[in-house]
From TrEMBL:
GO terms for biological process: phosphoenolpyruvate-dependent sugar phosphotransferase system. The chain holds residues 418 to 741 of 756 of the full protein. Signal peptide: none annotated. It is found in: Cytoplasm. It comes from Saccharophagus degradans (strain 2-40 / ATCC 43961 / DSM 17024). Keywords: Coiled coil, Cytoplasm, Kinase, Magnesium, Metal-binding, Phosphotransferase system, Pyruvate, Sugar transport, Transferase, Transport. Belongs to the PEP-utilizing enzyme family. This is phosphoenolpyruvate--protein phosphotransferase. It comes from the Bacteria. One of its GO terms (cellular component) is cytoplasm. GO terms for molecular function: kinase activity; metal ion binding; phosphoenolpyruvate-protein phosphotransferase activity.
Length: 324
């Protein structure tokens, strides 16, 4: 399958009537990076910085982080690399930084942890800014944003790191800053959030979990976890509308972006960037290239009129079967 798809590796990701959408990748491990480059990724929409933290038995130093980030930025330069600040807690734990809670998904995770530990946040941002000197392809992204204040405090800390480094003589640039929308509260403040940042990126894995109140890792409720639930689709559509109303580009970096049928719906909604596991890149590109924007919009309109995830899935399966 992939051998056949290799022929489109260097072709643009656009509908057959030339509506362009950027296809980026999610990375963390070195293997993801290698595969991403092999598949012709145009950028990184989510670099999970937890990964280098998980591979150690203590917090990596600023210099250790700088080296890892530099390698990632160099591998993709001049393409953009979106580095997410540490997103621990919930299902992601560090062996040397245990967090014991009854409801970890509703607890101390993501930006909540790093704003309570500004030394972790500042060290990470300093390492990222230093790593980007001379490449300038860094973008910084904040996970689990629930309140405007979190964005403002993070911005203040990023400015502090930037000022410190300038004073220390580094030729650093201020990178574009974005927030993830993965908490329902953020969906309803998407406009206000977009007005304060350079880009918005939807974390549909967590957004689905929180909108549907279904633990993303609990097998007992796995059949209730539907990223194509009508409520999720409405949230996804609202986010694009609100971000674009502020002139801010919007991407999606949850697993949904890598599912071919879902990708068509996301293109029709107006997502500017789909960021996915590199293994799905060519499959998604081939599906996008096979339709017109109008066909994708027609499919979206049909799907949005359906009452539940089951009928939406059936509708998409039928559309794909019909198209061969
Ligand atoms: C998400 O929640 O969709 C996301 C991309 O972040 P993670 O899967 O790392 O929580
Ligand atoms: Mg998430």
């Amino acid at each position: 399958l992939v051998a056949g798809l290799q022929s489109i590796k260097n072709l643009p990701c656009e509908t057959s009537d030339h509506h362009r959408v950027a296809l980026w990748v999610n990375t963390g491990l070195l293997a993801d990076t290698m595969l991403s480059i092999e598949r012709g990724a145009e950028g990184v929409g989510l670099y999970r910085t937890e990964v280098p933290f998980m591979l150690r038995d203590r917090f990596p130093s600023e210099e250790e982080q700088r080296l890892v980030y530099r390698e990632q930025l160099e591998a993709f330069a001049p393409h953009p690399v979106t580095m997410r600040t540490l997103d621990v807690g919930g299902d992601k734990s560090l062996p040397y930084f245990p967090i014991e809670e009854e409801n970890p998904f509703l607890g101390w995770r993501g930006i909540r942890v790093t704003l309570d530990h500004p030394e972790i946040f500042l060290g990470q941002v300093r390492a990222m800014l230093k790593a980007s000197v001379g490449l300038d392809n860094l973008r910084i992204m904040l996970p689990m944003i629930t309140n405007i204040a979190e964005v403002e405090i993070a911005q203040m800390l990023i400015h502090r790191a930037y000022d410190e480094l300038l004073e220390e003589g580094y030729d650093v640039q201020m990178p574009p800053l974005g927030v993830m929308i993965e908490v329902p509260a953020a969906v309803y403040q998407a406009k206000e959030l977009a007005a304060r940042v350079d880009f918005i990126s939807v974390g549909s894995n967590d957004l689905t979990q929180y909108l549907l109140a279904v633990d993303r890792n609990n097998p007992r409720v796995a059949d209730l976890y539907h990223s194509l639930h009508p409520a999720v689709l409405r949230a996804l559509r609202k986010i694009v509308k609100d971000a674009h109303s502020q002139g801010v580009p919007v991407s999606i970096c949850g697993e949904l972006a890598g599912e071919p049928a879902a990708a068509l719906l996301l293109v029709a909604m107006g997502y500017d960037v789909l960021s996915m596991n590199a293994t799905n890149l060519l499959k998604v590109k081939s599906v996008v290239r096979a339709v017109t924007l109008e066909q994708a919009e027609t499919l979206l309109a049909e799907v949005m009129s359906l009452p539940d995830a089951e009928s939406i899935n059936r509708c998409l399966e039928a559309a794909f079967r019909h198209a061969g």
